[in-house]
Design goal:
Herpes Virus-1; two-stranded antiparallel ribbon; 12 helices; about 55% helix; mainly alpha
Length: about 375
């Protein structure tokens, strides 16, 4: 069972169906329509709006409000929650002033900072206190007065983009319609060609001119040739229509579209070519050591392959070619030997006295 609190929360608020001015009830008047004004967002019925604000601006009749309202400012609420409706209106008002675009900024960080500043201003207007709202309104007014020219220019650019997008949509719809008409026309022409070819085949068969099989095959070839030529002509017409589009439908400043680079397969050796360059590996070699292995293929069951044996043997045979130690070591500096070691060895060699432990180290290979 649902508790009383939960059931009450599911029910609609009765005050939402009652006009705060004339106390009209939607239950008694189903056609009752409520309107709001962005100045204060107090809801009242359309009858009270016509009665109070038709003669001119007047103060809001809701108690403790007193804001001056005009009839043209009233409209029907789009959202059921007036807080959401108010936030949307504030965002529209702020967006009409802070209407810069990303291409006007040098870096992405500057663009993100601009968006963060706008969001902070919107938050102060929606959720801020009285002082925060006054400070945000003053900031919005000062920015509008200081950048009025840029705001108007961006507004015109936005309207031009919207108009351009509408024209592009109309052009695409017209092109799609032309393609559909061309497809229908092509199908009708192909159907007429098939019917005409069928009559000609029947006439030739009735008159006995030539072989029936050759006549039928020739008629099919003619129909296919005509349909192919018709399809090529229609594609050429569509391409010419597409290339002759209005240049004003394109947006300036956009990057050129580039085809994505095909992803290459994974290569574990990182591009290193392991193919032998000093020899050509053959499929078979004559060797008396492998005569029995070639005859008896039971070794292949364990995964052994003669071709792998050939590849490894040839690689080991030619692995030393092209390696020159002198060239490799010539570019490298030899490690410096401490002078004390050389002096001590020279002194021992001149006197002929070598320590026993040194001799033992030289003689004892283990």
């Amino acid at each position: 069972m649902i508790r009383n609190g939960a059931s009450k929360s599911l029910e609609s608020n009765p005050s939402d169906d009652i006009c705060p001015v004339c106390k009209s009830n939607r239950y008694l008047t189903p056609s009752l329509q409520f309107l709001i004004n962005p100045e204060c967002y107090h809801k009242m019925c359309s009858t009270c709006v016509d009665r109070i604000f038709t003669s001119g601006p007047a103060s809001c009749p809701v108690r403790y409000c007193g804001k001056t309202l005009r009839k043209k400012g009233f409209h029907k609420a789009f959202f059921g929650d007036l807080k959401v409706e108010r936030e949307c209106d504030i965002r529209k008002r702020v967006g009409a002033v802070y209407n810069k675009r990303q291409d006007e900024f040098e870096t992405l960080l500057d663009w993100n900072n601009y968006l963060e500043n706008v969001e902070g201003l919107v938050f102060d207007l929606v959720e801020g206190g009285k002082e925060d709202k006054m400070r945000a309104e003053e900031k919005l007014r000062a920015y509008k007065e200081r950048n009025l020219g840029e705001i108007e220019a961006n507004k015109r650019a936005g309207l031009e983009e919207i108009e351009m997008e509408k024209r592009r949509e109309r052009a695409e719809k017209e092109a799609a319609r032309q393609r559909r008409l061309a497809a229908v026309r092509e199908a009708e022409e192909e159907k007429m060609d098939v019917e005409k070819s069928r009559r000609e085949v029947l006439e030739k068969l009735a008159s006995g001119e030539g072989d029936a099989r050759e006549i039928t095959e020739m008629a099919q070839k003619v129909v296919l040739k005509k349909s192919g030529a018709r399809r090529i002509a229609s594609e050429a017409i569509l391409q010419s229509n597409g290339s002759a589009k209005d240049p004003n439908l394109t947006i300036r400043g956009l990057k050129k579209r580039e085809a994505p680079v095909a992803e290459k397969p994974y290569e574990p050796f990182g591009g290193v070519d392991l193919a032998p360059s000093r020899y050509v590996l053959q499929e078979d070699y004559d060797s008396e050591w492998l005569a029995n292995a070639k005859k008896d293929q039971r070794h292949a069951a364990g995964g052994f392959s003669l071709h792998e044996y050939y590849a490894r043997t040839m690689f080991e045979a030619f692995s030393g070619l092209g390696v020159f130690i002198e060239d490799e070591m010539g570019s490298k500096a030899l490690p410096a030997v401490p002078s004390s070691i050389g002096t001590e060895a020279a002194a021992e060699a001149s006197t002929g006295k070598i320590k026993v432990e040194h001799k033992m180290e030289l003689d004892d290979v283990f």
